[in-house]
Amino acid sequence: MGKQGVSSDKIESINPALITELIRGKLNDDSAELVTWSDSPIPLGGASMTASIARIMGTARSGGQLISLSMIVKTLKRIDFKFLLDRLGDKHADSFDPLDIWRHGLLFYRSALPGIIKGSFVPAKCYHAEMIGDEFARLWLEDLGEENDDWPESRHIQTSRHLGEFNGAHLERETATEFRPIKNFLRAHILLCTPAVGWESITETDTWQHDKVANLLPCGTCDRVRRMLNGSGQLMDRLATMPWALSHQDTDRRNLFSRISSNGAVKTVAIDWGFVGVAAVGDDVGSQVWQNLYFLNVLPEKASDYAESSFQAYMEGLRAAGSNETADQVRFAFLSRAIWALAMAPRTITSYVREGEIAGVLGRWIKERGYTLKEAFERWSVALNTIIEAVEQAFTETE
Length: 399
Hints:
Elements (H helix, E strand, L loop, with lengths): L15 H12 L5 E9 L8 E13 L2 E13 L4 H7 L15 H7 L2 H4 L4 E3 L2 E7 L3 E7 L10 H16 L16 H9 L11 H4 L2 H4 L6 H10 L1 H8 L4 E4 L8 E5 L5 E5 L6 E4 L2 H12 L8 H18 L6 H10 L1 H18 L4 H10 L3 H24 L3
Parallel strand pairs: 4-9
Antiparallel strand pairs: 1-2, 2-3, 3-6, 5-6, 7-10, 8-9
């Protein structure tokens, strides 16, 4: 942690006067004074649009008492995504604003949406959202704590129900005009993962048949994955005809926290609303399940049971919110979302075989839990086989 009143290089432009103003609002005391403050950088999760994240901690004097305080400060940086919109083509030109997508989280918190979203799945509180010149945006958010402990499977399944309630309460609802929700997020993600020279360059047979990998993946896995990724447009076109809902679109464990009320009721609090938009009903629970498996947030040995239990809990949440979508429609969207993880897999396998490491979120998970790379990849391959089977099942429903 930095010294009192001294910020780190990444957030040196933070103004203590603003901290004081936010504290006064939080405490509802116009005379509250900031006494000490310091910051501690938080490791980034790999998002290219995030410049830095830090925890601000300190003390304030209010009503003659010293009160501890903490907030999260997230700084976003400008990235032009026009190249991605160009790859999506004219048919999907309304998917997102390429000049605004980098600050989508700021626009979300400035809109009416955070106040509209009620129930058991809610956004983290935002105390202030500001632009810093033309190149950066900053969010001052509630500190939800570390919550580093792994959730039991029952808590993940409870979150699936909360997601069903959230999506069910916001079916095919147009959002405020000052906020443009992202569309075709899954289609854009696959394009972003696709190498410039095509999937063949990253699904090479010799890599997938390497001794490190071959005994963990069924024979022909490489060809199956290549065929599904090349044919992903078939799934995307079907999804475009499905009932849609307001969706978070990045709902794995990394972005979720628990809030327990005085009466013991549990809410799921979500951070990182940078991809919030509209997606097929079932996409959010698919994001949760398949990304949790991909990042090993859930035991892969229980993958099939976990996936089915989560889907059923999500359907219960939809029904509780008054939704009448058919289970077949929702299941198709749920299964199709597994292709998000499938599009990430070739780079993970290539990195493991050729470079002897796994980078990014998954690599950090391995280090934090003390697994050897071999042990982690063996577990991950079990999850990957379940993900592949889910995508194949989605394709069978388009035939």
